[in-house]
Each structure stands twice: as C-alpha cells, then as structure tokens.
Specification:
Chains A, B: This is MerR family transcriptional regulator. Chains A, B: Pfam families: MerR_1. Chains A, B: Keywords: DNA-binding. Chains A, B: InterPro entries: DNA-bd_dom_put_sf, MerR-type_HTH_dom, MerR_fam. 2 copies of one chain form a homodimer. By secondary structure, chain A is mainly alpha-helical. Helix content of chain A is about 60%, strand content about 0%. Chain A is built from 9 helices and 2 strands. Chain A has a two-stranded antiparallel ribbon. In chain A, helix 6 packs across helix 7. The radius of gyration of chain A is 23 Å and the shape is elongated. In chain A, about 40% of the residues are buried.
C-alpha cells in the first residue's frame, strides 16, 4: 500500500509516519518503480498501530518505544524481550530521597523488598528496576509510620503472583514470535492502568459497603 | 515545638513549611508570648509527614494534596473521604482520542467497563474517574486488535477485588478518624506503585520459568 493508505488505515498522519521512518522506528518500505514511492505491507501497519498505542495511549517516549521495538526485532528469546519491556518502560518515578544505605548499598526498603522476593521464591535479576520501586515505597511507608512493612505486602504479592499467571495466559494463541512479543508489551504495559482502575472500583465498592455512614459525620476540625 | 524543630523532625525545610502555612495546607500554630513565634504540635508533624509523602514520593500537585487534606479535615464519613481520595488523585492520564460515542455518550470501551462492573456486582458511582480509565484501556486494546475484551478482564477483576479486601483490612487498628483517613490515603495512593512493581517481579519470574530459551534465538528481521 502507499503511504497515504498506511496513514488512513493506521490513523497516524503522513508527517508522523515519515518521522518514524527517518527515526528507524518503522522499517523502510519496498521501493517501487514509481519515483519517490515506496510500498508498505501489513507488517508496517501492525507495527505502526503498536507504536501509536505505546506513544499515544501509554505516553511512552520515542526512545522507550525504540528500545521495545528493537527488542522485538532483534531478540529471539521471549524472556529477554519481556525483561526489556518490564525494565525499559518508565517505572513510576519516585523522587530520590537521602537515605541511610545498608552495607550492601541498598536502602532498608530495598533490603526488605529482597526479603519479600526470597520469601515468594521469585527468580528475578537482582538489578531489576521494580526492586528499587518496591523498596522506595517501603521506605516511604516506614517514613510515615504506616505500620505496613514487607510482611504486610506478602498477601498482596500472592495475589499479584496469580495476576501474573493470567498475564502469561494472554500469551497463548499467538502465531509467531513478533505477535507473542507484541502481546507481551500490551499485557505488561497497557493493562497497568486497567488494573489500577479495577482496584479503585473494587475499593469504592468495599468502601460503600463498610464505611458509608461511619461515625463522625458533620464534624469539622 | 518551634518551627525549627518541626522542620528537623519532619525533614521539610522551614521555607517550605511557611509556604504550606500560607497556603493553608498546614493549620497555623498556637501563638506564643514570644513575638513572631508559634508553637506546633504532634498533629502538625503528622500532617506535614503526610504532605511530604504525597508531594515528594507520589508527586501529587499541591492542589491535589489540598483536596485530600480538606477531605480529611472537613468530611466525617470515611466513605466520602475514600471517594475523594480515589477520584481526586491524578488518574493515569490517557490521551483523548476521537472515538465514536455510543448513544449514552460513552465510548464502546466505557460501555464495556460498565458491563464488567455490573457483572462483578460492584456498587460504584456512575461518574467515577476509574470507569473512564478502564474504558480507555479497553478502547486501546480494541484498537490494536489485542483480542482482550472486557470478559478477558473478569479474572483480573476478581483478583483485584480480593486485593481491595486486603486494602480495607489495612484500615483496622486506626484509633481515630484522622488516622483512618490517613491510612486510606496511604493504602490507596502509596501502594499503587508497589502493586505494579510486584506484578513486574512476578511476571519476570513466570517469564523466566516459561519462556527462557524459547525458539527464535538469533533471528533478525
């Protein structure tokens, strides 16, 4: 198809497609006999839709998208791709605070995060970004004396373990490695806001059932 | 305590404390006989630590924090406070896309989100922001032909329902309404990045077990 049809079918404007082509996010089309024209295939369309989703819906930076697409194109091992996807996408950024580091260079929270991982029997790379994120939340909870430590997170960890089993099941039925990798990206990245939204809805439901009409109505400080 | 001690114990600088006082995030201290001096209590310290967490760790805007603190101070019903917390904090912002709206003014995804809520039997306000978020994700999944519709999210919804039961359990043991509300904020806001981090770790573990050494190694496009 011509670039105009690619634009129409993907919903991405021609200038943006040309930018992705220059930038290498999208492979060049097949040159045709017509001067200055290139031919694009279904593969281009699929890839463009994926780019649109990652940039437009999940607001990833172009460089984060490049890393993910590079992984899909170059790596063959789905575990490697999954690892890059999990680590590369912008984790929820928490502001670095000055903290006492323990002997191993970890904050107390990161050390607790590693305890939780050991307790769960999870096999993860020690440098995975999510360990830092979890550690920073544990440090913050400790700062505010919330009384929520790593042991309190174990029941959460068991439920998220089951969620990750659902995630992996979504990989079934993909016909080739590119499709598998695309699904890995979608499931790991795109489902995040959905899961948080589901939790909020469930919280609202529980809150309505448990707390509505709780004492103290009308009090002001 | 003097403002200098409040600063030392909270880890918040004196100019920032003065800004919060001017802005009304923090109530004024008790005036003392000494000119230009005010006395601050443990209540100020608790509130300041909470502000620091919400602004510093979760990067909420000062106006979002003001809304949450206002709810804690003025509302007496924990369900109302929970509702404000759930709705007020910045939901994951998804870029608005032009979509066909159904007759009710909902996109197809939002209509599907409402189906899921009905199926789960959740009692939620029809205007809750999380419904829009969930709908936008469903629209995005449909855009990329992911084959993941609202029915595929039901098993996720059941597990997040159990997560919300854990959330509600964290409310136990609070001694007064302010403390209850503070815990509601912490649990609903601060645990979000922790849950996503736990899911990533669990995914990495499942991926290592299932996909490591999967076919295709060394292939390039």
């Amino acid at each position: 198809m011509k670039i105009s049809e690619l634009s129409r079918r993907s919903g991405v404007s021609i200038p943006t497609i040309k930018y992705y082509l220059r930038d290498g996010l999208l492979p060049q089309g097949q040159l045709t006999t017509a001067a200055n024209q290139a031919d694009y295939g279904e593969e281009h369309l699929r890839r463009l839709r994926l780019i649109r989703t990652l940039v437009g819906v999940r607001r990833l930076s172009v460089s984060a998208v490049r890393e993910i697409l590079g992984a899909i194109t170059e790596e063959g091992d789905l575990h490697q791709i999954f690892g890059i996807v999990i680590d590369a996408r912008p984790a929820t950024k928490l502001r670095k605070q000055d903290r006492e580091e323990t002997a191993g260079g970890d904050t107390e929270g990161v050390a607790d995060a590693r305890r939780l991982i050991t307790e769960m029997g999870w096999e993860v790379s020690p440098g995975t970004a999510a360990i830092q994120t979890l550690g920073e939340v544990l440090d913050a909870l400790s700062d505010v004396d919330a009384g929520i430590g790593w042991q309190s997170l174990l029941p959460y960890a068991r439920l998220t373990d089951r969620i990750s089993e659902l995630d992996v099941k979504q990989m079934n039925g993909a016909s080739d490695l590119l499709e598998l990798a695309e699904r890995a990206v979608l499931v790991s990245v795109l489902l995040e806001p959905a899961l948080l939204a589901l939790r909020r809805l469930a919280q609202e439901d529980k809150s309505a059932r448990l707390f509505s009409g709780s004492p103290g109505g009308g009090e002001t400080a």
